[in-house]
C-alpha cells in the first residue's frame, strides 16, 4: 500500500513539474504579457484603416525606431481589432517584413515585426512598443495631425447642401 501511494505522489510531482516548466516556457517565447491587452472593435475610433497607416508612415525612421533599410522593406498593416492597454483603447499598426519560404511545391510565409504602434481611439495619444526591451514597454510619440484618405460623411453632406444653396 505504501509503495502505491509513493508511486502516485512521485507521478503527481513529475506532472506538476512539467506543467510549470511548460507555462514558464510560453511566457519566455512570447515576450509580451497577454493579460494586459484585450481585443475589441474599432467602430468608436476617430482614425481607422488607411488613415492610421498614413499617420504612422508620416513619422521619421528615428521616431518609428526603424533603420532606413528596414523602413524601405517594411509593409504597414492595421489590425482589424483594437487593443486595450492600461484601461484605454488603441488602434494597432504593425510594420512588418513578409518572408517567403519554399519547400518543394509548398510555399509558406513568415512575418518579422519591426515595429508595433498604437493610436488611442480619441487620437490624443500615440505610442510605440519598445521592440528592444524584453519587458512590455511603450514609448510615447509626438502627436501629429491625422492625414486622411477619405472625407467624412458630414463634410460630403455639407458640400452637397452648399452646392444646392448656391444654385438656388
Describe the structure in your own words.
The chain is α+β, with helices and mostly antiparallel strands. It has helices spanning 2-30, 49-57, 61-64, 68-73, 153-167; strands at 39-40, 75-78, 82-85, 88-103, 106-120, 126-129, 138-141. Strands 1, 2, 3, 4, 5, 6 and 7 form a seven-stranded antiparallel beta sheet that branches. Strand 5 and strand 6 form a beta hairpin. It is extended and about 75 Å long. The termini are far apart.
Please render the helix and strand layout as text.
Elements lengths: L1 H29 L8 E2 L8 H9 L3 H4 L3 H6 L1 E4 L3 E4 L2 E16 L2 E15 L5 E4 L8 E4 L11 H15 L1
Antiparallel strand pairs: 1-3, 2-4, 3-4, 4-5, 5-6, 6-7
Supply Rg.
24 Å
What is the tally of helical segments? 5
Strand-pairing-aware structural class:
alpha+beta
Strand content: 25-35%
Shape: extended
Q: Strand count, sense and closure of the main sheet?
A: 7 strands, antiparallel
Straight-line distance between termini: 101 Å
Task: For this entry, give a set of tags.
168 residues, alpha+beta, seven-stranded antiparallel β-sheet, 7 strands, 38% helix, extended, disordered C terminus
In short:
The protein has 168 residues and is α+β, with helices and mostly antiparallel strands.
